[in-house]
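Note to self: keep these together.
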Amino acid sequence: MAEDLVGYILVFLTLLRKGALTLEPSFDVPVINITVVVGKTAILPCSVEFLGDHKVVWTDEFSTLLTFDNKRIIDDDRIGIDRPYTRDWNLIIHDVKVKDRGRYICQINTQPIKTKPVDLNVLVPPQILNDDGGGREIIAKEGETVNVVCNVSGDPAPSVKWYRRPLTDIEGKERERIGMEGEILVIHNVSRFCDGVYQCVASNDVPPAVEMETKVIVEFQPEVTMVNTRQSQAKGKMTILMCYVTAFPQALSYWRYHGQEVPTSERIKVEIYPESKPHTISLRLRMLNISESDFGEYECVASNKLGRDREAMILFEYRPPEPTSTTTTSVVIPTTSTSRSLVALVTYRPRVTEKVQPFKPGEPSFVSSQNGGHILHKNLAVIVVTLFLSSLSIS
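Structure:
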């Protein structure tokens, strides 16, 4: 048994030495398609067993010779051969570009030639083509149609979503999703309430996602809002008249009195302050030591290239109420028997500071006065007017 095994081995070695048992080269790795993100490094695998004296060649889909054996042929230093193991003849491409995508072929110069194709797919993260990095701004008039454009590229094709936030929201805390997906956002019949920062976000599952902001500002004619339509102040005091003007662009705003713009002086000042509401200012007319000539109708007027608006208010003199007092009227009844008599006319108004005591049962309602008339008891905290007309019988 052992002698037979030794005989078989000697025969095998003899045939191998004479070339009668030469093994054909073969690829020992199945076909694998490679996907890589642009800018990264791609390794296209090709492992060969029993290569012997044969050579390995890489070509592209246009039969351009890239490598021969372990040497680079093409004039592109990004391309080379990677051989982590003896049987490996991997094609390596550094800094992959979009133009590198396609089919590559690993070949062995046998008769006939043996080939192994490897497809390279290059992924491209989204990119916004019309983003110049400086921020975009669109100014439109109320009623117009606005197109906000976000041109994107990438592989696979990116999706574009739209968001909006107020102009005053710098940190994006009030961002809201708007519209439908697409590269163009159309705003029909735009109004002042449509202005804001519009943000497009493009993504295709290849990081990173990219975004671009476009500021949309709507021009509209002024709108004047008056804080008070009537205001009072005492002579010699200081007063402030105030109105709000909402407009874009802000142009001319002033106070008018008797048809003329109020001139400023040491006594009268016009002050303008920005408000938190977009495109809004407060216009304040500050007057010191006001006099009779300052009372009357004032107008807050605002205008720009799109229109004009105004609102009026009245400044009048403040007069404190007069203090109330007790008034008593009594009429003496004549003693002649042939005349008509006015029995009593009594009015009682307690002072504000007077402490009114409740009326006690049993006390007389009327008391006599020194002149013979009758007055209402002072503890009755009411106003009573009693008028009796009576005719005395003629004796």
